[in-house]
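pinging the channel bc i need a second pair of eyes. not urgent but kinda urgent?? the chain im working w is below, pasted from the shared doc
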Amino acid sequence: MTIEQIKEQLSNNFIGILAANKGFTLDKPSSDFGVDYQLKKAVPYVNPKGETRYLTDGNYLDIQLKSTTEDNITYTTNSIKYVLEAKNYNDLIERKSNGFAPLILILFILPADVATWVNMDASEIKLRRNAFWYYPPDGAVQTENGRTITIEIDKSNLLDADCFNNLHLKFFP
């Protein structure tokens, strides 16, 4: 596998673990229209026989997933800056301004040193570095630049164990 393919697979599995850990599903659309996954919350209900069943609640977030290494990030005190392809940025803006399901960007960041990406011992598996989510701020407009745009992601948008619950509540209070 290429390094890019490995980064992609690690990022896919990372968000899959976070989703499953809190009762969410990740569905991969069959066509690629700038959406890598749909995040859906599984909710229980009790049927007439008294059995608990699960359905997705109908409110979903679309996710655009990017993977990079920390040497491609600029860190500031409160944020990180990342150079995103203009087409991906414009997809985020278009989705926000036209009332579709929210589209968020998840940026998965690995260390620059490939040898430190994954480590394990008898009691744990470590996948190093972190991921952040980005949703365009109010008033953001599409870029006319044909190639790239630098986005700024607040460090408080760190993906953690409760991130998908928190994002679901943010968009579907």
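so The longest helix spans residues 3-21. and The radius of gyration is 17 Å. — does that match what u expected or am i reading it wrong
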